[in-house]
Amino acid sequence: MKIEPFGPKNSEQYHESDIYKIECNNNGYVFTLDTVNEAGQRQDLVIEFEELNGFRYLDEGDLLYYWDNENFRFYNLFKIHEGGWLNGEATEKGILTISKQLDLEEWLIVTTNGCVSALSHEPPKVRAIST
User: What DSSP character marks residue 68?
Assistant: First the structure.
């Protein structure tokens, strides 16, 4: 699996995090996370996509294959270059048929609870808000 961290780094100390709000409307898709900054202070991380070709939400326990990669540390957002949902996981015939033909980027939002895989033509906007 080839990945690249994206957005602000968070604390290297263990901490709980989660996606607590998902909004889909005419302005795009917004995922809001409860997490920590690099100093360990609580913050919201807002990840906004103008458009998505698709996304899936799974518990982190359903993605154990990913956690074998030690690079999934200290960030909540990663760009998946290869080996993810779009071009690495086994899928049934006819699943992601269109998406695999498009020039899409795969993104993975990671928390200690819920995780979101997202397929998009453009990178997301990311902003941190102190809580």
Answer: T
In whole angstroms, give the CA distance from residue 73 to residue 90: 24
Task: Estimate to the nearest angstrom the gap between the alpha carbon of 69 and the chain centroid.
Answer: 15
Q: What sign for the dihedral angle of Cα 104, 31, 64, 71? A: positive
Of residues 25 and 66, which shows the higher confidence score? 25
- pLDDT by residue (tens digit) across 96-110? 777 777 789 999 999
Beta bridge partners of 114: 59
R_g (Cα) of the chain, nearest Å: 14
Tens of pLDDT, residues 8-47: 999 999 899 999 999 999 999 999 999 999 999 999 999 9
Q: In 39-86, which residue ranges form alpha helices assigned H by DSSP? A: 64-67
Sorted by where each begins, the domain ranges of the chain are 2-130
pLDDT band at 90 (very low <50, low <70, confident <90, very high): low
CB-based contact 29:52 (threshold 8 Å): yes
| Cβ–Cβ under 8 Å, residues 19 and 27 | no
Chain CA centroid to CA 43, Å: 17
